[in-house]
Amino acid sequence: DAKKAGSNMIRFFSPNMNIMVLDQLLAESRLLRAMDKHEFMMFYQPRLSLKTGRIAGMEALLRWNHPKKGIVSAGKFIRLAEKIGLIQRIGEFVLASVTRQLKVWINQGKTPVPVAINVSSMELRGPKLKESLQYLLQETGLAPQFFEIEITESNLIEDLDRVRQTLTDIRKMGITISIDDFGTGYSSLGYLSSLPADYLKIDSLFIADIVNNRNMASIVETTITLAHSLGMQVIAEGVETAEQLQFLRAKGCDQIQGYYCSRPLSPSGLETFMQRIGEKNTGYIHRE
Ligand code: C2E
Ligand code: MG
Ligand code: MG
Ligand code: MG
């Protein structure tokens, strides 16, 4: 009614609200300028194979080196980046940055593990992703086995036929495909079975509670069985404890990713980490 509307109006025009709007605008313009100011950088989080006890790959994760706040995680700004139309440029930056890093490591005589790159739904639907990847492989001569693409399950619903074709083409190039955040979107077993994917990544939401919550434990166990029967390997995300690792290993999970193994690291941090675990390769626990 009128009274309610009136009070809403007052709230809408309150000074606090103006500050929030201003904050938002400021955040947007800061983010828009971050690219030109070279404030973006990539961190890398290793993944551990539960079969071999070795690092089987890593995920490239975008970071914003904010002049005041320091290193800011992608989770804090990636949605805003999509909203203000920056995600395409970010995608180009990520590809270039990861490629450059791989070449540095190879030139240093190292054999890098495959790097997984997160791809936004906009990139996935756009016409350029396939060509960018093709061009990149040709131009650099890097083997396609160095690259993986992670797509979020909830990004797949619309345009499924087109997305499926793009993924099939990318996979034919020799690049591995992962379905990220599995369990958080509108999963349909039907379309899951129709997707050309190599890895299924179970979202950290499910992993957080596997030790204490029987329902979560059964969901995870069933998902592992399902993925395997569809010919996919399973990566558990957000593994933070030894108990979670033991559970996942007992249930046949293929790989784990999470703070238990390592936090996302700067390139030099990753080099140190790899050196350390190379020196003492002691089974599943590579942490101090
Ligand atoms: P994601 O692909 O599911 O990435 C995993 C997220 O979980 C990362 O957050 C990582 O830092 C965090 N994480 C890893 N291990 C643990 C753990 O043990 N516990 C907890 N609590 N968290 C853990 P981040 O880096 O903030 O990224 C958030 C999301 O932003 C990513 O989710 C991905 O969807 C997106 N993103 C990240 N980098 C990029 C990028 O380069 N391009 C695009 N388009 N999206 C990106
Ligand atoms: Mg991911
Ligand atoms: Mg995920
Ligand atoms: Mg996520």
Automatic annotation (TrEMBL):
Protein name: EAL domain-containing protein
Domain EAL positions: 24-278
Covered residues, full protein: 452 to 739 of 739
Source species of the chain: Oxalobacter aliiformigenes
